[in-house]
Give the backbone structure.
Amino acid sequence: MRRDWDGLLPRTARLADESYLDFVTSFRARAVQQMYPMLEELGNAVVGREHPAGTAPGIAEIQRSLDALPLVRVWQRFMRSHQEMMWRRTRASIAAEADQWLAAMRDAEARGPGRLLYDPAFVVPDYARVEVHLQPGGYTDDPLGGPVFHYGTHVFYQGENAQDEQHVEMARKAAAPRDGAVRRVLDLACSIGQATVALKQRFPAAETWGIDVALPLLRYAHLRAAERGVDVNFQQALAEQMPFPDRHFDLVLSYILFHEIPWRITERVVPEVARVMRPGGTFCIYEFPNASGSLSPVAQFLIDYDSHDNCEPYSREFVRADFHGLLRDSGFDVAPGPKVANGFLQSIVATRR
Ligand SMILES: C[S@@+](CC[C@H](N)C(=O)[O-])C[C@H]1O[C@@H](n2cnc3c(N)ncnc32)[C@H](O)[C@@H]1O
């Protein structure tokens, strides 16, 4: 019998898994909350000394300067090891109850109030099948990917999103259109639907959709929404080719999608979002920082490390691209968005002209 849920979070199969993953969480917290700030202070000072003001070192030069710091190597080992430990134990724990998870997701498909739509002939593009963040099977190829992603990201958020708090905050702060009319809402690349549900709770009268390329995540998203009786619809679809009419949505939210897709796909997604949005509609974006903002040398190093060692193959091209320029050229006015708990992210409100 499953150990059920802890509020919105699934319990692991055994208490021993939970204890182990609590330890991994504290391991991660040490690397993120204690070591990284030290690294920033020391690393930016070293790079600043070796590259005087006015000269902008490239990533190879930043790496050469930082390689001299033992703390950098220790931090890298911490980051990689805790990630491997987290996925291994999370996957094993969910897999111990595979039959129950798969049956629960299958049974939920017949239940509402919302719908889960997918076409069995849908073809997942190769670029979306990489094992992002080292998740086994990636987002698309592990039938247990939904609960595995959920518990894995619980560790990633260091327990600070156990009840979807960060998604609720982003949905609550998302800028509504000036005229206040919110009839249809889209959570773009919604994964397991945490923001989708939070958006529905903020705009109860709006028809609310979440789309994603990954069916295993959507199946779990639908199970969670159905368990809570929340009327949201999920559909397997590509952000660059959406199954919606022109000018359909009043508000679109995307949370950390763009650094995870190739820039050539982003160049198709942004005009596609412009197509499905009505004039005055708001596109609320929470995303990695990029060339449109300013990144410290250590932040550039972090993103480069993450791209290479944490399987984020497309983030390097995103952080160097002119994302704000693409938004403007696609028909949006671009303004800073609300600050959220995750201060690393940039927040943008792009209003459809
Ligand atoms: C970092 S996750 C997004 C997290 C999610 N917004 C949340 O609230 O947790 C990136 C998501 O983008 C999805 N994705 C990647 N390429 C996509 C595409 N072309 N169209 C739709 N979804 C895509 C992945 O399946 C994954 O769920």
